[in-house]
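Checked the freezer inventory, then went back to the computational side. Two predictions to log before the end of the day. The first one is the construct we discussed on Monday; recording sequence and tokens without edits.
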Amino acid sequence: MDKRRLAVIIASFCTVLIGFAVRSSYGVLLPEMLPSLRISKTEAGVIYGAFFMAYTVFSPVLGLLADRINVRALLTLFSVILGIGTLMMGYSSSLIEGIFFFVLAGIGASACWSPIVPLVQRWTSDKRRGMTLAFVDVGASVGVALSSVILPLIVVAYNWRMGWKILGTLVLFMAGINFLLVRDYPQEDPNLQYPEFRQHQNKPSSKMYAKILKDSKFLLIGTSYLLIGFSILIPLTFISTYAVQELMFRYNIATRLITIIAVTSMIGKLMLGSFSDAVGRIKAIIICEILIAIGGLGLVFLPGSFAVHLSMAIFGFGHGAIWPLYALCAPDYFSKSSAGFIVGFWTLFLGIGFILSPVIAGWIADTTGRFMWSFILAIATAIISMFLLLLVGKKISCDNPLRVAPVDSIR
């Protein structure tokens, strides 16, 4: 692998790392933020939902732009926006300020996934696409793990506000790394290994985009993505708060549950990402969703500290590979040149689930006084998501005009 290719992959890894670190830090810091800001769980869900609303609005736009304009400039600019929003979260003193600053962070975070997928694919061979994107997405788990370990130490030494300030500063540093390392395409070369990703490739037409949006597989996978996102975000948002308030864990012990999710998700990303290259994306995603549902069932119905930790390990292993596997369905079922557009619009589906999830789960917890029913809702949506993917498998057609290459198994 040449130095420039390696530099782009490293920058992509770091961008995903910092984006998911910011996203997951909300759940880590939430037990300390609730009494300080004097907000309910529903209001806490509204702040998080506002982040994902901004993320959802901008992700499809950036996914489309990633197919057409300078990704280097895109990543640099939106990393700066993410850094400013994250930094200002450390100065929020009310619900309104929290919403405003986290909306700003959500706008910036929208560049930490959709543009990354087509960028990495341009610099990677077909045979290594699943493995390379899985590696880049390990950055998400590393970011979650680091935030869940380091932020509690900062909270103990200072407070939750300092956690946001330090994280925001790191994001601004990441913007500089993107500017220095990222390049849009491999240099033109007669011996270029991947000619389909040359800079002067034919751009997708508006008619092709219209066909994609009407395709049943596009809609089924997108709806499945929405539901699994809804499911996953409930424990990721409230597991540490649940452990502190209902299981009576100390704060630093409660946040270790997020660390367990992050560490096991790294293993899941690498194992299931490579596994999907052999058996197909849909089969691998279904396995992930089964594990997520099992982890949720253990959290609700198995008593004891060990059971909670084991359940989160199972949940994390399944959760780890979900995002890259859904993203890889785009070039598998449709056109590689449209990958950014497709991933961006699937992220629109995902964002709807993310917007609704913390608000509804927080409201249920406030209304019932327990998180149990919120977690049961997460289990149910994961199961429904899995069944939608089974329908995709039955509808695969070898003569799909939107595809550019044969698809093996039930991809």
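The second is the one RB wanted added to the comparison set:
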Amino acid sequence: MESRSFIANLAELVKEKKVSEETIDLSVKRILRIKFKFGLFDKPFKYCNKERETKNIMSQEVQNAALEVAKRSIVLLKNSNSLLPLKKDLSKIAVIGPLADSKQDPLGPWAAVGNPNDVVTIVEGIKKLVTPKTEVLFSKGCDIEDTSTDNFDDAVKTATESDVVILCIGERENMTGEANNRSTLDLPGVQQKLAEEIYKTGKPVVVILMNGRPLSIEWIDRNMSAIVEAWFLGIKSGDAIAEVLFGDYNPSGKLPVSFPRTVGQIPIYYNHKNTGRPGNERNRFTSKYLDLPLTPLYPFGFGLSYTNFEYSDLKLSSPEISDEQELAVSVNIKNTGNFDGEEVVQLYVQDLVGSVTRPVKELKRFKKIFLKKDEEQEVSFKISEKDLRFTGHEMTSISESGEFKVYVGTNSADVMESRFKLVKTISSSLK
């Protein structure tokens, strides 16, 4: 959070000679330079132009950029039996949930002066893309933090009448962001119960998640046909989500976090350090849970596509490198599915032995590529001694001779692996 420390104490600190006037002058000069740069001494109100602000903020260029960013931020978490993309000429589509037609929540917790009237909701986005003969039905079902199930009957009736259900659930926009914490990762209110009632209809269900943190959705993952992680996508939320749902855009986003199976798994992250008793389900005296796997529900870097990518032929340019050499790492990627698509190829490294404990994996490189159906491409990365450095006992950046694993794959858990050695000739902390 922000601090009032300087406002309350700085004058007194200067009087006590604990902060010099020269330090104050230096700080003020930084601000004045920026004001000079932007011409604010000649025209102090030059940027206070409401007409220009309105024109620029909602210009077509800005809206196009907002849509592009939103589409690329979406992560496909599940797609059983290739339910997605949906056909645009379905007879009836039910859009259900407290976030289905929300205009405020898609703006997210850092919207500042964002205008909800500029937001395209999920219902609105879907209506834009379907054919005229398709009927889009809407039922809210409940509010985000509702404790009442009074509107469940209407939601269930709406779902029953449809060919497919788009269930839009998640968090309020101000549940995340600065100083907003929760003690649980469960869906707020009665949204979980709503999901269970919709599931009982037997209709195929696509879950749209709108949230600012990982949620505990193991039941939803186990029972629902498809799951789309949409986060808070801004003014073009509805358009972006609709383009993904109907295949105008093939999702390519990857998770920047790990999703736990339950809040009890926290902290859970891909680059953790090994314990003294690494997990082994066959050995009772190792680190593990009695009631669930050690692994997350979705690992860091996870994200599906409407097509499939096959990794093969991982190659290293050499079994070892010195301080002055680079290691070339290459892998073949082939689009084996039925759609053109993008893939984020990820490279991780593990230092097997170190003078201080080292993570089991560290992301070092990634590259996003586009492949047409049946197209194949070799993707290459380079690693140097600098990429293998870490903070040593003396709090300096060092590297050490030894063996390393290199992993390349579609996420932090689904990888191919190889090994190489770093043979040091110079102390990296002195370079």
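For RB: The longest strand covers residues 341-351. Residues 309-430 form a domain with the Immunoglobulin-like fold (CATH 2.60.40.10). Let me know if you want it refolded.
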